[in-house]
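Per reviewer request, we include the raw input and output of the structure prediction for the construct analysed in the revised manuscript.
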Amino acid sequence: MNKDELRERMTDFAVRIIKMVDTLPSSISGNAVARQIIRSGTSPSANYRAACLAKSDKDFINKLKMVEEELDETCHWLDIIMRSQMVKESRLRPLHQECCELLNIIAKSIVTTKTRMNANEMVKSNK
């Protein structure tokens, strides 16, 4: 998957979060969770776009770490929504799965970039 495809997938995920939030109950707990997940679930898309414009590998990793943290938080809120039965688990399971998949992709991207950076440093130090 290239960066444009992942950027599109992140945007689609954010839209799905927005639509899901609109189905949450209009209660004290529903509103509190909605405010949390709307932030954590839409920010990975914006932060990934910023990572694609990173000035260096270190900058790229820092921005991807923000994406990773927000996706992890979103997985948490999706778990809370399912466990509290605010939305049927069967309706949220695909969204939760997508969140976990995106989180895994980002985590692997961080590891890959760090490995490449370390390899580049080894080459420079051997010269």
